[in-house]
Amino acid sequence: MTRRFLTMVGVVMAALAATAMAEPPPINVDLITVSGRHGLPRGEGSPIAGRLLVKDVTVDPSAATLFKTDVATVGSSLRQGVEKTLRNHGYLAAAAAEPAAGGAPPLAIVVEMSGPDIQADAEGATAIARLSVGPPADSPAIACLPYTATGKFRALTPLKSGGGQRATGIIFGALAGPVGGVFMANQLQNATANNVALNSRRTVAAGEGVSPQHGAPAVARHASINAVQMALIDLVKHLGETEGCKAPAKPPVIVPPVGVQVQAAPTPDT
């Protein structure tokens, strides 16, 4: 009886392992998406506000190999990340056939992702991701596109991470199991938010974090996925700061000194 039970367990475990190997690992779209709380330029009031429509996304096969999945999975995750990022910053069109709030028609864009460049060292890996974004040949031109958005992310191995917040997350995750894993994810997300805040002064968006898994392939994968988010940060900055796409500058708000009363403009005699 015991032998038969063990045999059945072995068969089930082998089937589960085969299924896990057959299915590509998911990509956390949140690691790609740029939320609207990072202080990047927004589209409201710009000529492309609520008008960008992602028509197509293509992915270099080498990126899928690096992400340990297939091209379709990477493309689907990238599309979701791009659309959510554009929506968070006021650029995404509501639907293909619906004009924006001002009555202007949607503007189609295509996104092409090349294979990330990986530079490995003793402490981890650095990935550089590039996204080529522009209108398709049969669509209207967009003033600030095409543009190649570039992002850089350095992923450290857990043993080399150091640094209070991230190291605490890793230790807690090792000791507390699933709950710790959630805590670790939150810590890494906080670190990402801090990275984003620093990028307003950089030409190339860049960040650094700790891979949640050991091994060179896992570290390179983590660096590459986060580098895509850095590239989307670069794209949002470009849209919000480039002539033809950025919103008009708002007049400065003049605050009078304390105790000074501002008189209303005189009304003309009637």
Key terms for this structure?
270 residues; alpha/beta; 6 helices; globular
What is the averaged pLDDT score? 78
Query: What is the ordering of alpha helices and beta strands?
Result: HEHHEEEEHHEH
General shape = globular
Count structural domains: 1
Straight-line distance between termini: 105 Å
Oligomer: single chain
Please compute the radius of gyration using only Cα atoms.
24 Å
Would you identify the regions where 5 or more consecutive residues have pLDDT less than 50?
15-22, 161-187
Strand content: 15-25%
What is the share of helical residues?
25-40%
SS class: alpha/beta
E-strand count: 6
Largest sheet: 6 strands, mixed
Number of DSSP helices? 6
Detailed description of the structure:
Strands 1, 2, 3, 4, 5 and 6 form a 6-stranded mixed sheet that branches. Helix 3 runs parallel beside helix 6 (216-241) and helix 4 runs antiparallel to helix 5. The protein has one domain (24-241). With 270 residues, the chain is an alpha/beta fold. The chain is globular. Residues 15-22 and 161-187 have low confidence and may be disordered. 39% of the residues lie in helices and 17% in strands. A hairpin with a 2-residue loop joins strand 3 (117-121) and strand 4. The longest helix is centred in the C-terminal third of the chain and has 26 residues, at 216-241.
